[in-house]
Amino acid sequence: MLSGRRYGEGVSSAMKRLRIALGLVGTVAIAGVIGYRITGMTWMEAVYMTVITVTTVGYREVGGQPSNGEQIFTMVIITTGVSTVLYTFTLGVQTVVEGQLREFVGRRRMNKVIDGFQGHTIVCGFGRVGRTVIDSLVEHGETVVIIDENPDRVKDIDHPVIIGDATTDSTLRAAGIERARALVAALEGDAENLFVTLSARTMSSDLFIVARARAGESIAKLSRAGADRVVNPQDLGASRMASFVVQPHVAEFVDVVMHERSQEFKIREFQLQPTCWLIGQQIGDARLRDSTEALVLDIRTHDGSFVTNPRPDVTLTEGDVLIVVGTQASLTGLQEVLA
After folding, report:
1. Direct distance between the N- and C-terminal alpha carbons of the chain, in angstroms, rounded to an integer
2. Are 265 and 327 in contact, with CB atoms under 8 Å apart?
3. pTM of the entire structure?
4. What are the extents of the domains in the chain?
């Protein structure tokens, strides 16, 4: 199985050779036309002689007996022209048969689609963690671009895919990192995720980066490299299992509102925009519970601190994030109220 880097290089190399071969055919044709024109033929006669010579048709020569110079020139055109045309034809057949032309065209079409994205999320790695992340993002209406090295692993998915090494700048640019809102580094190794995080932060200072860590000592390194959040799936899984033993009802409630898509209650966050009418008001005066039936559990202020179970006299400011629990209908109503 080819790696993603070798796969991409193979397609690019084949198309590059085909373009060079076509260029050589064009060069031979132009040289033939100019050469025959120099011998005294008209432009039409020169084109005609070049075509019948390169294609070895030899239908009928123009004019009378050719001079020695014309004969030598014709032999050169036959030798180089036929060789170049046969080489180009062979490359074209090989490219079509191996599917490289289709892959090249498909990749160009995919790049045009990605170029139109704005505020999307890039997920690096389509393993078990990456698949779960993508499913959750799509569930929340996010636009996703996937980067993975293995073409077989992503060939049947419906999302835009970049086949390549996520640790390289060119691959990240192909995924539209300059226009992306967030990036999830979910590769298998911590070293790879560290490289992705460092490259992504260098290329986009405003990008929100979530990185996966397998080893505990990698968490601090990933944070220093520029990750906004670092997640260790093993630690999270272990804590969740322990919670079911120690506080099963609390753990089940959290599962209901956070993970079970079929359940009625959900937790969402809403950031207060500069034009929101709630800015400057006390949360008790807003009467959000009465108007939407959504319950504000917490407020994260602009300085990053949390106000849990906020009192009615807490004043809301621009940039505050309301963490709210409620039904889908109540959360939709709150979103309309905050607009």
Report:
1. 51
2. yes
3. 0.63
4. 4-102, 118-231, 264-338
